[in-house]
Specification:
This protein is α+β, with helices and mostly antiparallel strands and 377 residues long. It is built from three helices and 17 strands. The strands form two sheets. The chain has a 15-stranded mixed beta sheet that branches. A hairpin with a 2-residue loop joins strand 11 and strand 12 (221-222). The radius of gyration is 25 Å and the shape is globular. Bound molecules: 2-acetamido-2-deoxy-beta-D-glucopyranose (2 copies). The chain crosses the membrane at residues 343-363.
């Protein structure tokens, strides 16, 4: 009797275990029928599984815009929906954005990969694709309204909007040569700002969409000696239609003929910690979770985009785990979509359920299992 009980308990725990390890189906859709007048993000319904993981993988990637070295890193895929009208019927037509992240203990690296016909107009960034990353700094900073501080114009300040700070990296490629490094540079860093006069890969912060500044500047202009601001980001871009790999110069613009199908790559790095003293940079900590959002602009139909008219990978902050070298991500691995592994584990759980029902039935049927005292073995 005792053994039967033990066996059925074993079967039950096996079943529970199987149910637990099978990855959940991930859905990151917004509400349908977003009500008029509803506050932005109010209709956001995001699966708790939506997240990004940055594993410790030193010496794997070079920030050159090429995606090849990232082949072994897991991608987190998200549909791109209009940020201000998060409606899946209005998704970016050429597919999802894939985000990859890793760190080497000092810097964190990102790859954004999105399919799109080649579009490039030199000097006109709004006629080129563009990407931005946004991170929560202040504990009360909301995804919607870029921090969500309710002070505007002369009223918004580091005091009145305290707790609502978000950190933004925006790369506009109209003046950026593919494969070349932009962002942090000695001239803008000497001036103590997050600007980038060469490629427009800028380091910004904001309290809401109307109170948004490059690091080191504020509502009343430069922050002067107060600021130790730097542009802490570096990045490069690429498109799969390019054939020359030895190095482009500006004269090669537009680098490939327009309209070719392919994939855009945007690659970035930033130190985990920066010298910011003004709540203008997010600080990353190994083993902790940060909050991230991804924006993508595309000149749909060749029409230049407007700043507010961008796609977003989510309708709220997405957690980003920066995991330590010693912790394994494999155990909690799950992908951006219902994939073969999930299907397989569902089948497996089904089989296990059947099996355990059978075992329980069999055990309860074979009631006369004789008790074998352990000392007789
Ligand atoms: C965030 O909001 C809570 C509740 O309103 C408040 O108690 C807290 O002080 C705020 N945090 C900051 C940093 O302003
Ligand atoms: C900034 O530093 C300079 C010299 O280092 C000093 O003369 C000036 O008063 C400082 N300004 C402020 C606002 O602290």
């Amino acid at each position: 009797m005792c053994r039967a009980l033990l066996l059925s308990r074993l079967a039950l725990s096996l079943l529970l275990l199987l149910l637990l390890v099978s990855p959940p189906i991930r859905i990151s859709e917004a509400h349908e029928g977003h009500d008029e007048g509803e506050e932005q993000g109010g209709g956001c319904e995001m699966s708790p599984d939506v997240r990004v993981v940055a594993e410790y993988r030193p010496g794997v990637v070079t920030v050159d815009g090429h995606g090849d070295e990232w082949a072994d890193i897991d991608a987190f895929e998200f549909a791109l929906l209009p940020a201000l009208d998060f409606d899946k019927d209005k998704a970016y037509a050429d597919g999802k954005i894939a985000m990859k992240a890793l760190h080497d203990g000092r810097n964190v690296y990102f790859l954004l990969q999105v399919d799109g016909q080649y579009m490039y107009t030199k000097g006109d960034s709004s006629s080129c694709p563009s990407v931005a990353l946004m991170f929560q700094i202040g504990e009360n900073a909301t995804y919607s309204n870029m921090g969500g501080c309710r002070k505007f114009g002369a009223e918004c300040s580091s005091l009145s909007c305290q707790g609502h700070e978000v950190d933004i990296m925006h790369f506009s490629i109209g003046n950026a040569v593919p494969g070349r490094l932009y962002g942090s540079n000695p001239i803008d860093n000497q001036e103590g700002t997050g600007a980038d006069r060469f490629g427009h890969l800028v380091d910004l912060y904001s309290w809401n969409p109307h109170c948004r500044y490059v690091d080191g500047k504020g509502p009343s202009g430069p922050l002067g000696n107060e600021s130790s601001a730097q542009n802490d980001w570096q990045g490069a871009w690429w498109h799969s239609a390019f054939t020359v790999h030895s190095g482009f110069v500006e004269n090669n613009s537009p680098y490939a003929s327009a309209g070719q199908k392919g994939t855009y790559y945007f690659e970035f790095s930033r130190p985990l910690r920066t010298r910011d003293r003004l709540q203008q940079d997010v600080q990353f900590t190994i083993g902790q979770v940060s909050k991230v959002a991804v924006a993508f602009w595309y000149p749909d139909g060749g029409k230049p985009w407007a700043k507010s008219a961008h796609y977003s990978a989510s309708c709220d902050w997405m957690p980003m785990n920066i995991i330590s070298a010693s912790s394994s991500y494999g155990a909690s691995r799950s992908r951006g979509a219902w994939d073969a592994a999930s299907a397989f584990s569902l089948i497996l759980s089904g089989v296990a359920l059947g099996l355990s029902v059978f075992v329980v039935y069999w055990v309860s049927k074979v009631k006369s299992v004789p008790f074998t005292p352990i000392d007789r073995l």
